[in-house]
Amino acid sequence: MKNQIVIESPDGAFHAYISRPAKLPAPTVVVLQELFGVNADIRATCEELAAQGFIAIAPDLFWRQDPGVDLDVTSEADWQHGLRLYTAFDRDAGARDVMETARTTVELRESTGKVALLGYCLGALMAFITAARYEVDAAVAYHGADTEKYLGEVGGLEAPLLMHLGEEDEFISKAAQAEIRRKLRSKRPWQEKRTRPFTAIQVSITPSLGIMGRTTMPRQQRSPTGGRANFCTNNCSDLRRSRRFRLMAIWSGTGKEPWERDMTRATTQASITSQTITVEHIRISSELSFAEVRRKIEGTVPKLDTGIAEALRSGDQKRAKDYEENGPKLSIFGERDHGALLQIVGGRRNALQYDIGNPLTASKMTRYQLPAALYAPLRVVLFENEQGRGVFEYDKPSSFFGQYGDERVTEVGRYLDATLEAVLRNAAE
User: Fold this and answer.
1) Rg (CA), the chain
2) DSSP 30-58
């Protein structure tokens, strides 16, 4: 279809609706759906954003359950179907889908490389989770139920966040709202804008729609009886203004208020620091031929079981525990033939670079220090010297993990020192 693109992900391919502005290149807004799928309301939101100068893209979050679902907010049957999809939705997988959508869009030729998330209800929760776990430039969340269950991830939130809460929202209790505000205040400079109290029932005619009516607050509402209420215009005009100028301020500097201008400076001026560290470099020289050392290392260190990465992503504790107790201490994530590249300068050489590590071991560091992911997996080079023998070289793990000043991370580094040296010595002897 003309207005659809395909998002490729490790879990499979899915579609996303896209609307482009007249002037390109442009920043991107990933629009995240409610329980109705990428329906007429979501598509209309994309068109509105495109008219304001953004590339707007809405991924099909329900593609695993009901691909292409397009539900009508005026249909009671569609509401019930949407609620079933909402209840069964895998939020962790959804966050990965949002991340893959963002990654795809910033690589589009017409994109400036800037990307924000804009979500409603389910989409609002996904905007918060994704912004906390992955890198985006901004996030806007309207009425994200269950946000309070993910406040433990606030530490990962680096992007500017604009969150809207309804004081009388029946699915986000006052206690939950208070906890959300408390946690967000502790994270960064804070400004709270209050409007008069509102409830979902104000925009719904029947009780069944009243329960989840707040999911479509920012757009024109329709009830099964045909009643209409533009909730954004009637009750949240300042929120709509905030949403528009908040996003505009991030990319074009047109925000009207001081706090918005401050956010612009924070997102357009990078802060760069540097640190000098001492790294211990290790060389293990073998008396065996390069070919024999290669055979031994590849015969004793298995290829990574990609299923363990999926188990970690899905929170499969049983599988992870079994892998830790019975699986290999180290695996080969991948290898690159660097020696073959030397053909361009007249002669191929024997030199292989291996990525070696253990996903569980890596998680024992990155849970405390995310930047430690820079060194996971570890890199080892095996090359052939002038005598035709195999030589390993690598940097000692504990020497670069020590830069974080976290004994929990350094301890894992020392474990890797011993484990990696053992497997390489075994291959070299």
Assistant:
1) 26
2) EEE--TTBS-HHHHHHHHHHHHTT-EEEE
CB count within 10 Å of CB 214 equals: 29
167-180 pLDDT tens trace: 777 778 888 888 88
Read off the pLDDT of each residue in 356-360 and give the average, rounded to a whole number.
Answer: 90
Contact status, residue 245 vs residue 255, Cβ threshold 8 Å: yes
Predicted local confidence at residue 189, as pLDDT = 52
* Angstrom distance (rounded) from CA 363 to CA 374: 12
What is the rounded distance in angstroms from the CA atom of residue 194 to the CA atom of residue 238?
10
Residue 380, strand partner residues:
354, 394
* Annotation: CATH topology of 4-268: Rossmann fold (3.40.50)
Poorest-pLDDT segment among 186-190, 224-228, 301-305, 387-391: 224-228
CB atoms within 10 A of CB 18: 21
User: What are the structural domain ranges in the chain?
Assistant: 4-268, 281-428
Mean pLDDT of the chain: 79
Angle at 275 between CA 273 and CA 278, to 5 degrees: 165
Would the CATH topology of 4-268 be identical to that of 281-428?
Answer: no
Q: From 9, 261, 317, select the one nearest 134 (Cα to Cα).
A: 9
C-alpha dihedral sign at 423, 424, 428, 429? negative
Cα separation, 30 vs 130, whole angstroms: 11
Tokens of 69: 């679902």
39-65: burial string, b at 16+ Cβ within 10 Å, e else: bebbbebbeebbeebbbbbbbbbbbbe
The residue with tokens 């009637």 is: 234
Other beta carbons within 10 angstroms of residue 374's beta carbon come to 9
Lowest mean pLDDT among 78-92, 171-185, 224-238, 284-298: 224-238
Instruction: Give the integer Cα–Cα distance in Å for 185 and 189.
Output: 7
Give tens-digit pLDDT for 17-45: 999 999 999 999 999 999 999 999 999 99
**What count of Cα atoms within 13 Å lies in the side-chain half-sphere of residue 407?**
0
Domain 281-428, CATH homologous superfamily name and number? TT1751-like domain (3.30.310.70)
